[in-house]
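Q: Please design a sequence for this.
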């Protein structure tokens, strides 16, 4: 057997293994990485009662273009939750958003709010929560329809970190970071 044919067989073998690994990783959902991690992200528990939060919005260059504080209060009745958010922006603007969140039979979630298009889709695994939704976002005198890829991670001491990637035409145009802490 020549070195060329032996190398060709090895190359084909390595390529086959690579293809199998690549195809098997395609089946994995992004949240699967967080299976078994703690503390557990229980949406009904975390978003029940008062929560204080602080956030920033960064433009596509990474510059902080907006800062805000949020006071939230969540309540649950069975599989239906209400989360009322009061935003106070550092430029003096104020905003209120009221979410209605429903836990579905498969363990995933749906959420609605006045400025959300259709329904937000959420799921959790281990310490992580992921939400996807579309929002009409006012910026100055214009309104943009933006897709949110919203990730949350539960930390110790009642802290939750929220990182959102705001996308237009599949391109991240802005990022949002919020630090939340449950209040007693």
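A: Design:
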């Amino acid at each position: 057997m020549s070195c060329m044919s032996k190398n060709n067989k090895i190359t084909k073998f390595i390529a086959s293994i690579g293809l199998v690994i690549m195809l098997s990783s395609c089946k994995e959902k992004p949240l699967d990485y967080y299976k078994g991690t703690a503390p557990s992200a229980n949406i009904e528990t975390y978003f029940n009662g008062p929560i204080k939060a602080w956030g920033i919005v960064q433009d596509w260059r990474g510059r902080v273009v907006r800062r805000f504080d949020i006071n939230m209060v969540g309540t649950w009745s069975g599989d239906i939750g209400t989360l009322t958010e009061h935003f106070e922006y550092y430029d003096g603007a104020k905003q209120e958003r009221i979410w209605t969140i429903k836990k579905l039979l498969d363990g995933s979630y749906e959420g609605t709010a006045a400025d959300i298009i259709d329904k937000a889709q959420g799921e959790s695994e281990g310490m992580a929560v992921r939400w996807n939704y579309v929002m009409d976002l006012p910026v100055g005198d214009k309104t943009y329809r933006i897709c949110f890829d919203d990730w949350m991670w539960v930390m110790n001491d009642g802290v939750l970190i929220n990182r959102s990637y705001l996308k237009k035409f599949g391109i991240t145009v802005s990022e949002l970071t919020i630090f939340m802490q449950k209040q007693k």
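Q: Thanks. Anything notable?
A: The two ends are 75 Å apart (CA to CA). The chain has two domains: 3-33, 36-182.
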